[in-house]
Specification:
Blueprint (H helix, E strand, L loop, with lengths): L1 H119 L14 E2 L5 E2 L32 H15 L6 H7 L4 H10 L6 H12 L2 H13 L10 H13 L7 H9 L4 H4 L10 H10 L1
Antiparallel strand pairs: 1-2
Helix pairs in contact: 6-7, 7-10
Length: 318
């Protein structure tokens, strides 16, 4: 019995010793943990201070940038106002100069027209008749809606006839090359001096878009030849001719369009005749044959392909 009791006491003491060691170890770890916590708190506090300092620095920088931006905006606005004012002054000066030059030019035009009228024995007020009901007065202005048109009588081998100023309107499908040809025929027929060709050529532009083009570029023209070159490069460019070729090879005859068979043929044949490089008659006719139904194509026989007049005649008979 005594041996059991001693054994029990021994085990209890061992347990107490282990518990004491465990408590000491736990206290040591607690101390280390508290030290770590203090270190972390110190780091956090330092980070807070550093972050606050950086935030303040950024805020100051933002304030400076904002002030600089406001100052720059104010300076730019002031400079823009000054530049706008200078531009307005320059525009006003240019307008005054332009008005003065236009008046001088109008006077020169009147004098030149007087000379031309005297040479041709045609009154100055009869300097032009246009087909839309407009008359060209002595200053060269086109007066719209005139109901009392003055006819121009020409003498010579051509006899007594009337020749109106040809007008270009892109909305009406007019060909630019044809317009230039008609315009130069008009100059020759009316005996207009070459120094007036540019002025009259400008008067012939009446389309909505082409007039805008003329307003944008007209002041840069110094001669009729320059006008002619710019006019054709704009309104008869490679892109424009490409569209004409597409219509030539892809269009079909449509009776609902109001054209007869022969009128349709003539319209597209004429259109194709202005293309550069020029197409042969065979190429044009072969392309136009495909516009028509099979039964009509048969009337344009293979033996007629060599002559467009025969093909055109066969359509008249259809």
């Amino acid at each position: 019995m005594i041996g059991v009791k001693q054994q029990f006491e021994k085990e209890r003491k061992e347990q107490d010793a282990k518990l004491e060691q465990l408590v000491i170890h736990q206290e040591t770890e607690n101390v280390q943990i508290r030290q770590k916590v203090k270190e972390i708190q110190g780091i956090v506090e330092n980070n807070k201070v550093e972050t606050a300092r950086e935030i303040m620095t950024v805020k100051v920088a933002i304030d400076m940038i904002q002030k600089e931006l406001e100052s720059s905006t104010s300076n730019v606005s002031r400079q823009l106002r000054e530049q706008e004012s200078r531009l307005e002054q320059n525009v006003n000066v240019d307008q005054l100069k332009l008005q003065s030059e236009l008046k001088s030019l109008e006077q020169e035009i009147v004098q030149l027209k007087l000379k031309v009228g005297n040479q041709m024995r045609i009154p100055v007020e009869r300097t032009g008749v246009v087909t839309d009901g407009s008359a060209v007065n002595a200053r060269g202005d086109v007066n719209k809606g005139s109901s009392n048109l003055e006819s121009v009588k020409a003498t010579g081998n051509l006899g007594s006839t009337e020749f109106a100023l040809p007008l270009f309107d892109e909305d009406k499908g007019m060909n630019p090359v044809s317009h230039i040809r008609q315009l130069e025929e008009f100059f020759e027929f009316r005996g207009i001096q070459q120094q007036l060709w540019l002025i009259v050529a400008k008067k012939s532009i009446v389309g909505s878009v082409s007039k805008q083009w003329l307003e944008a570029t007209g002041m840069t023209f110094v001669s009729y030849e320059q006008f002619k070159s710019e006019f054709l490069s704009t309104w008869w460019s490679a892109a424009q001719q490409g569209l004409v070729k597409c219509r030539l090879y892809q269009s079909k005859y449509d009776k609902a369009a109001g054209l007869s068979l022969s009128a349709h043929f003539l319209k597209y044949a004429t259109m194709a005749s202005y293309l550069e490089p020029k197409l042969t008659d065979n190429e044009i006719i072969e392309a136009l044959r495909c516009h028509y139904p099979q039964e009509i194509q048969k009337n344009i026989g293979e033996h007629q392909i060599k002559q467009s007049s025969k093909s055109f005649g066969s359509l008249k008979e259809t």
